[in-house]
Design brief:
Shape: globular
Number of strands: 3
Structural class: mainly alpha
Largest sheet: 3 strands, antiparallel
Number of helices: 13
Distance between the termini: 67 Å
CATH architecture of the largest domain: Orthogonal Bundle
CATH superfamily of the largest domain: Intergrase catalytic core
CATH topology of the largest domain: hpI Integrase, Chain A
Radius of gyration: 23 Å
CATH class of the largest domain: Mainly Alpha
Strand content: under 5%
Length: 293
Amino acid sequence: MEKQINNFLEFIKEDKKLSNNTLQSYRRDIVQFEEYAEANKINYLKATEEDMKKYFSYLQEIGKKTSTISRNIASIRSFYQFLVRNKKAKRNPTEKIQSPKVEKKIPTILSSEEIELLLEQPKNVDLKGIRDKAMLEFAYATGMRVSEIISLDIDDINLKEGVVFCKTRTKQRNIPLGSLSLKALRDYIEHSRPILIKDENIKALFVNTNGKRLTRQGFWKIVKYYKEQAHITKDITPHVLRHSFATHLLQNGADLKSIQIMLGHSDISSTQVYMQFQDESIKNIYKNAHPRA
């Protein structure tokens, strides 16, 4: 089975251009099923729909979340589709299995006051403070994913035009930078980054104190540190800044399509989750605008 797993992962890597993190998720899901099949003496090439139902029930019994089970079903279904297509298996035993409905969590967002409180924490008194100020302002100003931010190179920023070029495997989106973000970013690029980097060949926009590209974990720790400094009780991650960016734009009159483009959502249904935070704004607009409100 290991050989078929490797063949499958190689295929989807080339066919779907998936990230390494996504490929590892596929691998974990399928290897976990492989271990279950071996322990229960199930020939994976002859697995039945009943075998799969028992496996997914087993995942539920050991406390796996609904979202994790749903992802497992999708991973294993794709694996069997690959096996059937390559005539290694006669049928896909997951074909008729329905994924459990996953409740959509309401995103955590910060109020405008909490954002102000968080962003005023880094002080421009040292190299790290200048960098942190620029980084937090940038994350809130652009709504970019943390993976996108840490992947940025210095050449992806146009200070003169006030825009960042966010490139993915298949497309590029241009996101404007607000005046405060631009000011903090210019300060970092001109006064902090040149000293932090130990090698002029380093292209990364945001670097750590060792002059290397900032990691996802490093970014998360910085956000957590300033959250505690601001005495904000909400659990804040870099993604909360992305949620807050989208919600505040919507509440202040931006249209959903523009927010979708800036966030890089391929489907507008992903952006519509922020509509639930617009209710109070709509009430206020109605009261102020309707002649009989």
